[in-house]
Design brief:
- This is Lysozyme.
- It comes from Novosphingobium guangzhouense.
- By secondary structure, this protein is mainly alpha-helical.
- The protein has one domain (about 5-140): Lysozyme, CATH 1.10.530.40.
- About 55% of the residues lie in helices and about 10% in strands.
- The chain has helices at about 5-15, 50-70, 75-90, 90-95, 100-105, 110-115, 125-140, and strands at about 20-25, 30, 120, 125.
- Helix 1 (about 5-15) runs parallel beside helix 3.
- The radius of gyration is 15 Å and the shape is globular.
- The chain starts with a helix and ends with a helix.
Length: about 140
């Protein structure tokens, strides 16, 4: 599966576009639409086109991660919500999560309830993450 425009718009909305490096709430050096990694350096500046290119590459990585983690058929909305969630948290955390265990058990109602548990940034409840998780859970439950 591939992320739909709805899923991409969700990621863009919650990540926001920043053309200069910054530290996210968890203290990670970030640029563009939530791009992190060893190629992100302090003081770095990029164009919107570069931010879009990072986003395309990052989304592809998280599409593959979700496809590898999930062993049951998903709707497009479920896939989009899981890609957004994984984009934000990283595949390592998501792979071992109760949310993925519930998805793979086919317990989609319980899986949707798991999104809300992932609301901490730097050890503190983040209102932005509370809002993002609610949007992801809503999308996950959309038919």
């Amino acid at each position: 599966m591939k992320l739909s425009k709805t899923g991409l718009d969700l990621i863009k909305h919650f990540e926001g576009l920043r053309l200069n490096t910054y530290r996210c709430q968890a203290g990670v050096l970030t640029i563009g639409y939530g791009h992190t990694g060893s190629d992100v350096k302090s003081g770095m500046k990029i164009t919107e086109a570069q931010a879009d290119a990072y986003l395309v590459a990052d989304v592809a990585k998280f599409e593959r991660a979700v496809a590898d983690m999930v062993k049951v058929p998903l709707t497009q909305s479920q896939f989009d919500a899981l890609v957004s969630f994984t984009f934000n948290l990283g595949a390592g955390k998501v792979k071992s999560s109760t949310l993925i265990r519930k998805v793979n058990a086919g317990d989609f109602a319980e899986a949707a309830a798991e999104f809300a548990k992932w609301r901490l940034a730097g050890g503190k409840v983040s209102n932005g993450l509370v809002t993002r998780r609610a949007a992801e859970a809503k999308l996950f439950q959309t038919k």
